[in-house]
Amino acid sequence: MGPSNALPPEAPRPPADLNPRTDPPLDFRDKPLAEMTPGDWDALGFMCGLEVHQQLRTRTKLFCRCPAGVYVDHHDAEVLRHMRPTLSELGEYDGCALMEFKTRKEIIYLLERETVCTYEMDDTPPFEIDREAVEIAYLVAAMFRLQLVPELHVMRKQYLDGSIPTGFQRTAMVGLSGEIPFRDPTLGIDRPLRIRQLSLEEDSCREVSDVGHRIVFRTDRLGMPLIETVTEPELVTPWEVRQAGRLLARVARATGRVRRGPGAARQDVNVSVAGGRRVEIKGVDNHRRLPQLVHTEAFRQLNLLRLRAEMQARGLTRDVFAIPTDGPAWEVSPLVIDATSALRRSVYEPVRRALEQDHTIVAVLLRGCAGLLSRPTQPGISFAHELQGRVRVIACLTGHPFMIHSDVADYGLAAARWRHLRSALRAGRDDAIVVLWGPARDVSTAAREVLARMAEALDGVPAETRQAFADGTNGFERILPGPDRMYPDTDTPPLAVPPELLPDPRALPEAPWERERRWIDAGLDPLVAARLAASDWADLFDALAPRRPETARRLAAALEKRVPYWRRRGALGRYELPAADRLAPLVAALDAGTLRPDAFEALADRAVLDPDADPAALAVPPEPAPEIATEISRAIRTVIELAPRRKRRDREALARWALGIAMRRLRGLADPRDVAARIAAGLAGEA
Amino acid sequence: MGRDDYKGYRDPCLALMKRHGVRVWSEVIARTTGGTFEGLILPRSETADAQHIALKLSSGYNIGLRADTIVELVETGWREAVYRIPEKEFPRDPAKPRVKLFGTGGTIASRLDYRTGAVIPAFSPGELYGSVPELADICNLDTEKLFGVFSENMGPEQYIELAQAVGQAIRDGYDGIVIGHGTDTMHHTAAALSFMVRRPPVPIVMVGSQRSSDRPSSDAAQNLISAAWAAAHGEIAEVLVCMFGPTSDRYNLLHRGTRVRKMHSSYRSTFRTLGDVPLAMVERGAITPIKRDFARRRDDREVEIAAVFDERVTILYYYPNMQPDIIDALVERGYRGIVIAGTGLGHVNRKVYPALERAREAGVQCYMTLQTLWGYVQMYVYETGREILELGVVPLANMLPEVAYVKLGWALGMHPDDPDAVRALMTTSIAGEMTEREPHDGYLVFQGGVPELDALLRHLWK
């Protein structure tokens, strides 16, 4: 396409990432996750959508023929690259691009011969898109009941953080606007879950380290095919978020053609509250972590909105933080001073280390901001953390710490030195001071970034991509990229998807909700069916194929109890399941009525825990069958003989004991209630 | 409605669009048998099939809808296409050298229009300043677009025009010249200029990119910055190729125009000096010489432009069992010069001897170069070689086959009626195209997987 095709600039669009409600509930009382009710979430205006990334199980990567799914921990070569933002037609960098450029990062890629070729290094154009991946992506899209895209167009989505050596991710739209049943009896959810889109794209590098101006990536994962499924932002409680994440994963897994295991599925969550703005939290690999994570983020946004209200009440405006864009910060603005010589004799260890390294120390004046930096944003984290996150990522400061501030009394520096800085900056009682140290050029960027972030605080919630931490909190990763960062990949022609790659709509794999329906029809209680669907032994249940409703109920209940027990006992690995043929004879015997239901769990235990036990033999009653009356009287005799040695000798205890002994031999032959009654009668007779 | 209203569309899509009253750049709701889609109709690439309409969605993704599934297209808006490119004035500094940048086609720098996906070339100093602002720290830049052809379509006509333009720029007093060029045939053009621009007083630096400038990982900016440094501040007044040294973003190499060759279809570090070491490294403005014997920058403006070329020359890539009729055909078709890329030390099979003899009798000049690329033609070692020499085939030492082709065309142009003068010119090195000696590190094709090289690569940024 030539220049004549360019469009005129549009009028600025209303930011699509603002929460539709503009009234933040500033007076809402903060509560822990467990105490929050659906009404509370509604009051917060909580809104959330999911982007689920799921790797596909293909032989090769998406655009080259390197093996997919091979991870290595060594490398045999390194490449050094930089990313340079490309300008839009307005001659401006988009926010994200600008930020990455400010960081001036050296990006190192670690290469390993068996897992990457010159394609991943960005030294060879893409090969033809992997047909297997296209086929699986369309299959999953059909499962999500999406409208399938007839002709695939590969696009480039810009990423300047270095996670993809080309500077963009190749991605193609596969399906649009669909919905699936979203049902959870325990949460009272029963409505459709709307899916916005599903795209097929290449996976990025794995980050090895990111310190200062150098970020290191491993390239083995780069280029693996994955699908990104995006829901509409209609999840209104953290629990819905978790359940929706699980449902999406289950649908993809129902095809049997997606990857499992650590890192194979990762979600990004988009969260906002009333008055806030969409913030993307990246790379959550565990559904269990989702509720706490979004809860913390919801309150972080509310706290930022409270901060904004406070700043407005103090009459602060953006001008207060304005600084000219060129030149060292301390030379062009009275808000920043070079405090290196003033702190020359400081005994504060981090400052001393900075001085030894010839670093520059600056003090930044935040007019009217006293007390704001220590206001809480997340559990155990104050607003100063927001400044720190920006400075660490954008200015690449690496000290531990590299920043202190005046909201904490006598933080790091002696009171006299703080007084000195105050007077040098002409700071009053209402003002706050931030002190930063690092290489001169970086510390100038850092001072500007602190002022920029303070100015953004007046907008409330900045549009950011944040990373999830294990403790449920999150930290700044980068500015949220704008939507206009997509352009066609000129290296790949459009692909009219051939019919043989499209799924047969009549022969789709069974969807999770269809499966639940089938189980309910087979005799399971709807709640049990829902729990089974959520379990990881659902496939085992189907493999064992119970035929009668009683068998199905008995099996579902047994698996729910015994699988975690077998794992605790160490007979199975943490995610392992018993082989179906260990249990199949027992299930068949239940169905045939030759095994008493109450015997099932104990025999299943033996089948799983004792590798030498023959499951087929377990399913057959012992020959000759023990005489019930004989076994009962033997059990009664045993307990009476041994009773004097026992602490508890009351009849109930003895009866339970005798029952245990008798049932060991009679399990599956006699009804335990009947045996218990006969033992009770027998003991009474002995008395 | 204009010609571009249906840009790239053919029937059945064309008829469909006309029937529903929509055009390129219409915002539409498309009802299809597979669902309803909303987006902006994009122009269709000429090489794409005729069965699909391309739509840009609001998410930025493009998709294609199959014409035979479309039930209805409803236009909801239209956005007129207007070309606009911002210019920032290139800052001038009288203290800095003046550099002339010639464009030959392709893009040196560009901007991206995200909404349409169009890559807009940036070429004027103002446009270039917008995308590579570092240039203003190096020189005062003037630009001139000579032609807009792809690298593979460059030929004698362009060599001649380019050589003349370079001569003019030198006489106009520029301190250096940069030539933006597609990479595929950059070394052919570099060779042509090396012969046509005799004793230039300033650097003439050819530059291109292996990854287009619209991508964040492009090598274009570093190449352009390094080339501008070499042209504005470098001491080497020769025709040079300035491209990536390693594939990492580290330094550029300055290659002599007659010893350089593109050696990989897509690697960034594709240009290599063959049979010698490069002239210099360029890294963040520092130009570090590697070789000492090069023509130095001069203050005078004296340059001889010998812009001639006889197109009736060819390269014959020899293969076993080559038949003589190939050579006979060339002679019959009126070719006046043949550069053979022979095997080993410069050999062809006995079968073609009679044809070579007929060529000599017809006055067609034949020269021997090597398909091994490295090493010298040495036709005395084996009997075969001596026989071929007797047939009038002239060995060209270690001249690269493509360089020999360009030189022969030029030499025949210089002396159209004097075969002996052509032979004399061909066998004299005038721009470093033949060297007297090959240093041991003039040939470095390492073999991957070998333990000692693995050990080296681990400590090296490729």
Question: Can you lay out the helices and strands and say which pair or pack?
Answer:
The complex is a heterodimer of chains A (687) and B (462).
Chain A: H1 38-44, E1 47-55, E2 77-81, H2 95-103, E3 106-111, H3 131-143, E4 147-148, E5 151-152, E6 154-158, E7 168-184, E8 189-202, E9 206-211, E10 214-218, E11 225-231, H4 238-254, E12 265-272, E13 279-284, H5 290-313, H6 329-332, E14 336-338, H7 349-356, E15 360-366, E16 376-378, E17 381-382, H8 384-395, E18 403-405, H9 415-425, E19 432-438, H10 440-457, E20 464-468, E21 474-479, E22 486-488, E23 495-496, H11 512-521, H12 526-534, H13 538-544, H14 549-568, H15 580-592, H16 600-609, H17 615-618, H18 628-642, H19 651-666, H20 672-686
Parallel strand pairs in A: 3-10, 13-20
Antiparallel strand pairs in A: 1-11, 1-12, 2-3, 4-7, 5-23, 6-7, 6-22, 7-8, 8-11, 9-10, 12-13, 14-15, 15-19, 16-17, 18-19, 20-21
Helix pairs in contact in A: 4-5, 8-10, 11-12, 14-16, 15-16, 18-19, 18-20, 19-20
Chain B: H1 13-19, E1 26-32, E2 35-41, E3 52-56, E4 62-66, E5 70-78, E6 98-103, E7 109-113, E8 118-122, H2 125-131, E9 140-145, H3 156-171, E10 176-180, H4 186-196, E11 197-198, E12 204-207, H5 220-233, E13 239-244, E14 252-256, E15 260-262, E16 271-273, E17 280-283, E18 286-289, E19 304-305, E20 313-317, H6 324-332, E21 337-342, H7 353-361, E22 365-370, H8 383-390, E23 394-395, H9 401-414, H10 419-426, H11 451-458
Parallel strand pairs in B: 6-9, 6-10, 10-12, 12-13, 20-21, 21-22, 22-23
Antiparallel strand pairs in B: 1-2, 1-5, 2-3, 3-4, 7-8, 11-19, 13-14, 14-17, 15-16, 17-18
Helix pairs in contact in B: 3-4, 4-9, 6-7, 9-10
